[in-house]
Amino acid sequence: MAARLHAVIDEVLPHRALAIFTELCTGRPQKKAGDPAITQRITISELDAVRRQVADGQRPSRAVIAGVEHPVLVYGADTGAILVLCDPQEPARADAETYVRAVWKIAATRIRQQVSEARPDYLRESRAVSSERLQVTAELTDRHVTDLESLLAALRSRELDDKRARALATDMATSAVVRTKTGSDLVVSLAEEAVSQAFEQLKNDLRPLSRYGTLGVQFVEPPADGRALPGEVAHAARAIVRASALLMGDQDDVTRIRIQWNCDGTNLLVSIRDDGPGHLSRGLPALRQLSARAAALGGHLTVNGVESWGSEIDVRLPLDPPDTSDQAVQSWNLAPREVEVLRLLADGRRNRQIATELGISENTVKFHTSQVYRKLGVTSRAAAASLAADVGLRS
């Protein structure tokens, strides 16, 4: 929808990028199109700040979008949704403002209708995106927990007087606030990190545990020339290690934790070992959550304990996402020609273009398209393209 709206509006009111924000879509509240330099960096918090201004009766002419202040045109809707045009140019015709308002009203109404209809394909997409957002929230929560544990360790330390403890706590709190505001953990979710850089970040995260307490943390460095880690793998690995270290540190008689990363070119291999009573069990709710996080990336988590020798948590996270396209296509029972049509449809080709490329008539394309809709259980071109994109089915 965002891409279509961008194309239609750009004909009468040229603009660099477009964004929609609506709380009706719990799975994907933001929809965007235009210059990737903006659309790939725009955040929900930025759009929400604009939405609050509109709710207060304002119509801002400038706003922070993608981390930079831009000229904007903002349009509200009775559904609570907003449309933001970034870097608008001179209108191509006199009635551009009226035209944009009318088109946006139709789009906002369609969004509300789509949510209320809640077709199965829309729900699947919404649930998938919601799960991703919940995972990011959980990872940020882990970071906040680490910060709070570090603050408590400094304030509870018997080796520091009150003045020194307050100074340390203030410095640590300031650093935590800066990290929170910059959202550094969100940025890395779409990037790659050198394995040594990712491990160094982990060491910085956990250093307060040993600096302000009696717990010793030993780090075994990964190979410096190891394969770079996808952002989501590096982020998940750090979150799992942080949570595991805090869980181990809460046990009685634990004085040392050993953390090791390795990379075999295909997987990131993580080991967290303590010298405690050896009673950790995978059945613990916290470990079940960590296991589920590893599984979400196609990985695996195991827990082993030996009485009076300690516990060990081993994690394997694949660096490449699984190729699910063939499996999904097989489950849809598509004929070979229907797969070809779906591939081209997912690339945004129209019926005439598909017919030309495959050497068939438009009526034949329409027939194959209707068969694809039926087998995928969808009712629209956009829904079929969305499912195809979800499993990586592209030409």
From TrEMBL:
<keyword id="KW-0805">Transcription regulation</keyword>
<dbReference type="Pfam" id="PF00196">
    <property type="entry name" value="GerE"/>
</dbReference>
<dbReference type="InterPro" id="IPR000792">
    <property type="entry name" value="Tscrpt_reg_LuxR_C"/>
</dbReference>
<feature type="domain" description="HTH luxR-type">
    <location>
        <begin position="327"/>
        <end position="392"/>
    </location>
</feature>
<dbReference type="InterPro" id="IPR036388">
    <property type="entry name" value="WH-like_DNA-bd_sf"/>
</dbReference>
<keyword id="KW-0804">Transcription</keyword>
<protein>
    <submittedName>
        <fullName>LuxR C-terminal-related transcriptional regulator</fullName>
    </submittedName>
</protein>
<dbReference type="InterPro" id="IPR036890">
    <property type="entry name" value="HATPase_C_sf"/>
</dbReference>
<keyword id="KW-0238">DNA-binding</keyword>
<dbReference type="InterPro" id="IPR016032">
    <property type="entry name" value="Sig_transdc_resp-reg_C-effctor"/>
</dbReference>
